[in-house]
Amino acid sequence: MVPDLELPPLHAGPSLRRRAANVGFWLACGLVLALVITPAISIVGGVVVRAVPHWHWSVLTTLGVGLGGGLENEIVGTFVLIIGVAVLAGTVGILSGVYLAELCPEGRGGLLRGASEVLAGIPSIVLGYVGYVAFVVAFHWGFSLGAALVVLSVLVVPYIAKTTEVALRQVPTSYREGAEALGMSSTYALRRITLKAALPGIATGMIVALAIALGETAPLLYTANTSQTLPHLAVTHSPVAYLTYPVWTFYNQPSASAQNLAFDAALLLVVLVVALIVIARVLVAFTQRNSEAASAR
């Protein structure tokens, strides 16, 4: 006579080891998240605590004078640089990403991507020194807006090109096949369908690149120097002020007014970076909502 065998229940819960591993995994994720968030909160909180008690709105509308005054020239100069980088680097980077994703032959794409990754890995201070030797000295541009824009654009073009290429490659192949079945030319389909579908990723990469350019100091010290007047918008021989300059220069000055300006400039940089992140989120949400509405129709 065969003895009855006790079979385990079909829907038995996870074993103790599995549950312990699961808990350990989530604890590790929380620890890593804390390690990432804590320094950011500490830095931003320190800037806010040091800047807010002595904040005056006149800083936004007063030109800098020596180690005092306001930050109007730095604010306007920063906006001029960001707009110029958006136009110059955005054009080159997006077109480069489109070429790599849609038009580049297979054999040539690897070489170009490798060159872009090498360029992205070059320290910004090295690019600034090269820009100084090439534009300020060799081309006799002097400290100028043009030299600063070229160097900053070279710095962030690889990021824009990479994100554009990745965003385009994530567009479903069925979009291209459908456009081809409808008789659209490849250029028209790229402009009207593929680029629209990839717009959230492209916009995000563009905003991240602008945030990187916004926080740079070393390349601008070599190319833009600084100025205590508003930007003249001349390409050459036109030094430009920017917000990272007082942060780097005034922080260790013995003057209390200079240190206050350094923290005011740091607070404005934090606000601008947060504003760029919010703009990126809004653009992504808006484009995704429009694409979903178009798909529903």
Would you mind describing this structure in some detail?
The structure is a single chain. The protein contains 10 helices and 2 strands. The radius of gyration is 26 Å and the shape is globular. The N and C termini lie far apart (70 Å). It has one domain: Orthogonal Bundle (MetI-like fold), CATH 1.10.3720.10. The longest helix is centred in the C-terminal third of the chain and has 41 residues. With 297 residues, the chain is mostly helical. Helix 3 packs across helix 5, helix 6 runs antiparallel to helix 7 and helix 7 runs antiparallel to helix 10.
> What does the average pLDDT come to?
86
Radius of gyration: 26 Å
* Largest sheet, strands/sense/barrel: 2 strands, antiparallel
CATH structural architecture: Orthogonal Bundle
Widest sheet, order of strands: 1-2
Sequence of secondary-structure elements: HEEHHHHHHHHH
Anisotropy-based shape? globular
Instruction: Find the CATH superfamily.
Output: MetI-like
> What is the straight-line distance between the termini?
70 Å
Structural class: mainly alpha
CATH class: Mainly Alpha
Unreliable residue stretches: none
Proportion in β-strands: under 5%
Q: Determine the CATH topology.
A: MetI-like fold
Count of helical stretches: 10
Tally the beta strands.
2
Count of the domains? 1
> Helix share of residues?
over 70%
